[in-house]
């Protein structure tokens, strides 16, 4: 088995970047946070680094949330709107504050993998991908994956959510019923350069008074007019003003979770300075949960076992409920180590089974990603593309300096310039893997710079129209192979393993569409030639066999795993959680993160995580108020 080179490449890239340092704004926020931590009274909320500091203030909590990530932070915020609820968030990672890679949007490219902000997982060898073990980043920092993601803001198609609703038998998940939640999450803000966004999105479909800022990039890039021109002249690639309207097909400007050039994450928004001083909200960092224990020996799972970085073990018991929000990889792992999973398999590992739920860890769905890069003749050096920022320390430091002053410039935006949501028009599938005829089969991930999760070449300018299988048919799993909760779980996204070969059909169609796009007249003169990846150069007339060989050598994840604690109707014997997020067969425990999703949406999944957190919060409040 060979390990994917993406990790090794990035490790080298990382060394080009100087260590994290404080921005002025960040320093102020750190000061504010420290102030709250120090101003301990009988009920002063704070972010704590140690159990001792927390216990000096509070020792008893109504709700314990495992994981201060995307969904978990949303739940922590909404529950603490109720002054009568006290909440403790246990987060294994450290602070997001003052962390350059986490705060500076473009530097998301080096926030993972192989950093302190990442759980640094790898998959098992992917049988369809030359048995490569793929890097599998997950956020390990307050804000979770929303603190390290690429900030693309996509809700999915209306059909994605309607299929979710039909699958679990709960109309609350229908698109029309979720739009108010999306709006409640969103705070549509002007880009950092203040330009008029009206031609870049449809403001009427967005919220303007929510918690998490969304916007567009605060500068123009040289590929913008070429992309727009293609959407106006090539019928296959229509322009879509707003892919978040419910109708997603077409190519449009990437909306980003950014606030004036800073990342807007769950940590800066839902746990941001406006809320973190609530006296009933407590966050403990560096607290790695190992198990959830039955509290009274009767299937009531409200005691949480965790350890600090020294290995010292603690338990806290929630007075009301535990909410497990550790994400698609760690949520099933924690459940299994707690005796909730396939009873026979747990017994074989020496774990006492409490509840036999064979679906725990199953149904993993993720989006495979394929880098496709071209050499381009960038005219606006040094910042025509993002490449010089990663190739040249001088350019990089100038760009970081500009961003530190004002949030402006290339560092202050996601690497994603445009996104495209497209379909294989051949209709050859016996069962369409997409949620409906207006839902994408594959995605274009367009960057004005090299995007291969590795250091860019030392010289040259690049563009990527990478492709993603947006509605994959393949499924995988997260399992464990020991009774030690500190051991990494076995992650198998099962890329390209569906028995009908649907995902192979889709990736070939996607690659060909990408070459058609880049070969359209507006790019003539700008695009010079395709660029090799892992020694393979793909040309526009590539055969199926050539595309397949390229995919086997280069496919990776685009980091959207879902489904390992799948939701199913309370009337179904299958699934892990009921439609109110309660874990089947136990009391006192809910799972609230994207692991509950029965299908992967044709979307990047942070908006899904927030909407899950918001809807779950309403249900938890309704159950206990
Ligand atoms: C590199 C990367 C890029 C991405 N890019 C995009 C993008 O551009 N757009 C988009 O929409 N989505 C993107 N995603 C996906 C999206 O961010 C995630 O789907 C979403 O944030 C998941 O939310 P969650 O709440 O389910 O889990 P997370 O946000 O991952 O939260 C889980 C939290 O639980 C904590 N935790 C886990 N185990 C334990 C434990 N044992 N004890 C205590 N705490 C624990 C973790 O540290 C983490 O903070 C990206 C993800 C990654 C990793």
Automatic annotation (TrEMBL):
Domain of life: Eukaryota
Assigned keywords, A-Z: FAD, Flavoprotein
Matches recorded under Pfam families: GMC_oxred_C, GMC_oxred_N
GO molecular function annotations of the record: flavin adenine dinucleotide binding; oxidoreductase activity, acting on CH-OH group of donors
Cofactor(s) needed: FAD
Binding residue positions for FAD: 141, 289
Domain Glucose-methanol-choline oxidoreductase N-terminal, first and last residues per copy: 327-341
Entry similarity comment: Belongs to the GMC oxidoreductase family.
Protein name: Aryl-alcohol oxidase
Organism this protein belongs to: Mycena chlorophos (Agaric fungus)
């Amino acid at each position: 088995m060979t390990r994917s080179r993406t990790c090794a490449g990035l490790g080298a890239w990382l060394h080009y970047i100087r260590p994290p340092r404080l921005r002025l704004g960040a320093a102020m926020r750190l000061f504010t946070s420290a102030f709250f931590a120090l101003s301990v009274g009988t009920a002063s909320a704070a972010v704590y680094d140690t159990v001792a500091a927390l216990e000096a203030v509070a020792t008893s909590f109504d709700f314990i949330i495992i994981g201060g990530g995307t969904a978990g932070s949303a739940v922590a915020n909404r529950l603490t709107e109720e002054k009568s609820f006290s909440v403790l968030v246990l987060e294994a990672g450290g602070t997001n504050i003052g962390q350059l890679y986490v705060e500076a949007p473009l530097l998301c490219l080096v926030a993972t993998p192989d950093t302190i902000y990442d759980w640094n997982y790898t998959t098992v060898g992917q049988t369809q991908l030359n048995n490569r073990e793929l890097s599998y980043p997950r956020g390990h920092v307050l804000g979770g994956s929303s603190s390290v993601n690429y900030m693309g803001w996509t809700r999915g198609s209306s059909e994605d959510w309607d299929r979710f609703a039909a699958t679990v038998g709960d109309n609350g998940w229908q698109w029309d019923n979720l739009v108010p939640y999306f709006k409640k999450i969103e705070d549509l803000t002007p880009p950092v350069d203040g330009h008029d966004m009206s031609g870049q999105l449809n403001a009427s479909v967005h919220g303007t008074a929510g918690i998490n800022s969304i916007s567009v990039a605060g500068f123009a890039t040289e590929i913008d007019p070429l992309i727009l021109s293609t959407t106006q002249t090539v019928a296959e690639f229509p322009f879509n003003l707003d892919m978040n309207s419910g109708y997603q097909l077409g190519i449009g400007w990437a909306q980003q979770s950014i606030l004036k050039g800073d990342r807007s994450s769950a940590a800066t928004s839902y746990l941001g300075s406006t809320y973190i001083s609530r006296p009933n909200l407590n966050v403990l960092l560096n607290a790695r949960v190992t198990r959830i224990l039955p509290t009274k020996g009767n299937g009531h799972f409200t005691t949480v076992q965790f350890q600090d970085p020294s290995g010292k073990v603690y338990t806290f018991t929630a007075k009301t409920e535990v909410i497990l929000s550790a994400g698609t990889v760690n949520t099933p792992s924690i459940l299994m180590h707690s005796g909730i999973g396939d009873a026979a398999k747990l017994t074989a590992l020496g774990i006492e089974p409490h509840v036999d739920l064979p679906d725990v860890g199953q149904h993993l769905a993720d989006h495979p990603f394929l880098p496709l890069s071209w050499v381009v003749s960038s005219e606006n050096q040094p910042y025509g593309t993002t490449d010089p920022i990663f190739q040249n320390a001088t350019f990089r430091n100038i760009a970081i300096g500009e961003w530190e002053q004002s949030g402006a410039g290339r560092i202050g935006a996601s690497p994603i310039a445009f996104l495209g949501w497209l379909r294989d028009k051949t209709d050859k599938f016996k069962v369409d893997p997409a949620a409906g005829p207006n839902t994408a089969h594959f995605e274009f991930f367009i960057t004005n710079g090299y995007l291969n999760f590795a250091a860019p070449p030392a010289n040259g300018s690049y563009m990527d129209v990478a492709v993603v299988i947006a509605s994959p048919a393949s499924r995988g799993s997260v399992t464990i192979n020991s009774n030690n909760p500190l051991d990494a779980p076995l992650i198998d996204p099962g890329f390209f393993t569906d028995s009908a070969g649907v995902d192979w059909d889709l990736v070939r169609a996607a690659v060909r569409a990408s070459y058609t796009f880049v070969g359209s007249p507006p790019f003539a003169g700008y695009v010079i030639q395709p660029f090799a990846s892992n020694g393979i150069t793909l040309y526009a007339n590539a055969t199926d066999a050539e595309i397949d060989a390229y995919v086997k050598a280069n496919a990776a994840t685009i980091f959207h795993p879902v489904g390992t604690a799948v939701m199913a109707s309370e009337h179904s014997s299958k699934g892990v959680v009921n439609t109110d997020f309660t874990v089947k067969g136990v009391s006192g425990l809910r799972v609230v993160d994207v692991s509950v999703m029965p299908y992967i949406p044709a979307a990047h999944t942070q908006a899904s995580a927030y909407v899950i957190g918001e809807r779950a919060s309403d249900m938890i409040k309704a159950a206990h108020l």
